[in-house]
Amino acid sequence: MYYSERYQDHNNALDKFVLIFNKTSKLNNFDLSMFVQKIENFRDDGWIKFPDSSSIKYDFEKRFTYYPSYEKFQFQDLGQFERKIAKSEIVLSIQSSTDEIGFIFGFHSDFLKEEKKYISSKTSSGYEKTAKRFTKRFIEVSYKDMSPFQKMLMNCYEHKNFSYSGCKLND
Length: 171
Prior knowledge:
By secondary structure, the chain is an alpha+beta fold. It is 27% helix and 32% strand.
């Protein structure tokens, strides 16, 4: 994380997200569980476990800019740093709105279909010019009801296709 002063806010947002995810999963009889990587490994933020105990790893980010609230994401495509996409063990990127009532997610397999773009990104110490990829293949979900997200994950799991098209199967 390039803003060390945001670690605690990020971790609190992640803990809240996982708590809501697991409550929703139990309430709707999904056999899904989400876990947080409690020891910082500078790789992933945790994993989602499926009915057969297989799992996928995810990257979680609380957005402090450009996504103030649910249905207010300010772009037509979702961006992700190449350094995160390059971590082959991570399958999914989840980005929470600043107020933590909505989130967007995209699969790394969809980002990888796109060209790298080198653009400047603000960091706590200035700017860096680094590779990012952008995809229009992302989905927004409300914290109020995470069941659509969980249904999409189950579609991906059942079809062994963790991508936008895989999660949209059986709509």
